[in-house]
Amino acid sequence: MESARQFALIVCVAVSSSQAACIASTELDGLDGEDEAVAEVQQEVVVYNALTRNALTRNALTRNALTRNALTRNALTRNALMGNSLTSEALRDPEARELLSFIVSCALPEDESIEVDVGRKSYTFPGELGLAPEWGKRNGSCGEKCQEWVSACLLSRVNYRGEHVMISLRGKDDALSSSKKERDRYDAPEATYYGNVFLDTQRRFACLAPGKRSIPRVCGPSLDGCVVEVVGECEDVCDGPRRDGSFTDCHDREPIFTLPCGTGIFPRGTDRYKASVSVFLE
Questions:
Q1: What's the rounded Cα separation, in Å, for the pair 271 and 250?
Q2: Residue 180 region, left (φ>0) first, then alpha (ψ -120 to 50), else beta?
Q3: Cα torsion at 213, 216, 222, 223 (round to 10°)?
Q4: Nearest to 45 by CA among 154, 159, 163, 182
Q5: How confident is the model at residue 87 (pLDDT cuts 50, 70, 90)?
Q6: Residue 123 is inside which H or E element, if any?
Q7: What does the alpha-carbon distance between residue 16 and residue 218 come to, in Å, rounded to a whole number?
Q8: Is residue 51 classed as helix, strand or coil in its secondary structure?
Q9: In 10 A of CB 80, how many CB atoms?
Q10: 255 has which bridge partners?
Q11: How would you classify residue 191: left for phi > 0, otherwise alpha for psi between -120 and 50, otherwise beta?
């Protein structure tokens, strides 16, 4: 621990010496130098949040074949889905179809969709955000980066009561860019979501926005038993905030200690997720 502390002190000095540069970078981060006039005409990433808590935690997310390699190793296309017996059988469950609708919505852009036949019925699943467009290519698949982006998106769209609530999604991906109009309207930070729900042992995490102590939209009246494990405050476990208010590179555990300069030392075995989605409410 002493060696770790000494190392942290060195890091702290290094951070302090470049503090001005870091602040400048943070101020510019999030909009990539875009002109506000251009930002106004960009698509607003404001989506319907309708995954119910039950569908996410018990059936649709945790015990469904869609969340395993049967789905991610193949392209997110009609032929791949219907050609996979595990996936096609799973889609007979309405909760599986609900989950797939949000997976497609998160992964594919709005000009793409997937149509699948389940029994004698045909279902169309439209794309919306485009966080993993490569998954929808003919020979596509969903690797770690894709899985983490789609997972963060799915977790951010859980609703404890199954209600349709307008939310603003932001993060370090071009698909999550936001206009000034959107940021002004949706100015109440809620939490940041990250993890990987496509693993055999799912990883579902969230951190609280500054000043928040709960996430009633996702967790209900208490954080106990929440679908996500709330790690702590985003300022402690993530980098940021960026100019749009989002946090990036979030950890799945809180730091052991934090030095005055803000450098956190995390316990061994802590994982960091490059993909994360921050939610803002009206």
A1: 8
A2: alpha
A3: -60
A4: 182
A5: confident
A6: strand 121-126
A7: 37
A8: strand
A9: 20
A10: none
A11: beta
Task: List 115's β-bridge partners, or say none.
Answer: 124
* Per-residue model confidence as pLDDT tens digits over 145-193: 999 999 999 999 888 887 778 889 999 999 998 888 889 988 999 999 9
pTM of the model: 0.82
- Work out the burial of residue 124: count CB atoms within 10 Å of its CB; fewer than 13 is exposed, 13-18 middle, 19 or more buried: exposed
Which has the closest alpha carbon to 176: 163, 195, 198, 192? 192
Determine the straight-line distance between the first and last CA of the chain, rounded to whole angstroms.
44
What are the structure tokens assigned to 193, written together? 């979501």
Token pair in block for residue 257? 């200690």
Under 8 Å CB-to-CB from 150, ≥6 apart: which residues?
Answer: 103, 106, 107, 131, 132, 135, 142, 198
- Per-residue b or e along 151-187, where b marks 16 or more CB atoms closer than 10 Å to that residue's CB: bbbbbbbbbbeeeeeebbbbbbbebbbbbeebbeebe
Residue whose pair of structure tokens reads 């038993």 in the numeric block: 225
Mean pLDDT over residues 81-90, rounded?
Answer: 85
Q: Which helix (H) or strand (E) holds 7?
A: helix 2-17
Amino acid symbol at 90: A
